Amino acid sequence: xxxxxxxxxxxxxxxxxxxxxxxxxxxxxxxxxxxxxxxxxxxxxxxxxxxxxxxxxxxxxxxxxxxxxxxxxxxxxxxxxxxxxxxxxxxxxxxxxxxxxxxxxxxxxxxxxxxxxxxxxxxxxxxxxxxxxxxxxxxxxxxxxxxxxxxxxxxxxxxxxxxxxxxxxxxxxxxxxxxxxxxxxxxxxxxxxxxxxxxxxxxxxxxxxx
Length: 210
What we know:
CATH class of the largest domain: Mainly Alpha
CATH topology of the largest domain: Tetracycline Repressor, domain 2
Largest sheet: none
Structural class: mainly alpha
Shape: elongated
Number of domains: 2
CATH superfamily of the largest domain: Tetracycline Repressor, domain 2
Number of strands: 0
Strand content: under 5%
Number of helices: 9
Helix content: over 70%
Order of helices and strands: HHHHHHHHH
């Protein structure tokens, strides 16, 4: 069977001048509005260019296709969430398990907010999990949770802490993605988040006692 070719998701170039940076920002803000108004299946670069008040050619100077534009929106969401996630897990004024619980709830809420964007990426055939930009974000997430595990599980080996970080990220991501795809209310999502947090906190607590 012929292997499906992945779309190009890397930007053509980075803006170097203030005017170019403003154009890219306008395009990204327009893309968010188009996605919210038109939905995943009607999201196109032409609609985004019209919304931003720029030519399609100007948009294509920075984004080669709609997949690249959508991935940039997704990457920005991921990195923003990871920044908050890192701040929560690194806050040593709170006990480790309290931080983990708060981080899980924050992650679920973020996943709920970006559910429409995930649909758009799926509809575009944008299978980015193995792409280098996506791997870099996953590595950043592993670094954040790995640092937390070093504090929460000081008696465990590096290999066991890495395994624990991977388990937490994989479990949390998989459950949150399934739950938020159902378009539940925030209260319902929070209930799922609380249950997931219970599971992961018990897991980390059990490892700490070994």
